[in-house]
Request: fold
Amino acid sequence: MVEDTILVEKSEGIATVTFNRPERLNALTSEMMGQTIPNLWPALQEDKEVKVVILTGAGDRAFSSGMDVKEAAQRSPQYRSTGRGNLGLTPRAQNFTKPFIAAVNGLCGGVGLAFIADADIAIAAEHAYIFNPGVTIGQLAMYAPVTWAQWVPFQSLMRMVLVGNQEQITAQRAQELGMVTEVVPSDELLPRAREIAAMIANNSPTAVRYAKRIMWDTLDRGLQEGLAQAQHLMGDYSGHPDSSEGPRALVEKRKPEWTAVDD
Reply:
């Protein structure tokens, strides 16, 4: 799948998705946010070849600067948003069950932050930084801060939201806050993301999807309800062929033959 603004490359069970507007710091147009990106996740969900997805930006300057401000500036002063514009953009918002890795290769701001906040694993290049420009340009980009509030220190998020453009969080600080899990040199970012993706792809795809759902459900539901849901899902998985194939393969010192996922 190749489009002007989104590139998708598939290899060995890994799909690498690239925002492809480097001349605009990979800013997202209304068409990208309204159609291209929301339509991407169902297509990858249905693709039997894809086990893990990596998202990054073209070039080394930006992951995504957020919405295209030039396009937004041309809107009528009477333009009103429903506030739901970000809700179908990210894989998690579309109930995407496959593992999703964000490889942050430069600056990331505004709506671009939603893809980091909703990633199962986010890693960043050393020169990357994140910021929320919303209030500086009279906008509200709140999806990522609200999501991050489940595990990132509240005052750090509030400061980013209220200061706007002037609050730039380095990759190293983002790792300290739990926004990304790892920081690597720029030229090692995609190789490292693919290395992590390959490790995930070697695991039972069914067990991986159950594990992902259990972890996100725990955040959404809270501890006690999350534990109850985890027990329920573990019961659903009990007896799956992979649960016995894994131990057998380990004892027999061979690669497991996992059962294909039935979507």
Observations:
- Residues 205-252 form one domain.
- The chain has two domains: 6-201, 205-252.
- The radius of gyration is 19 Å.
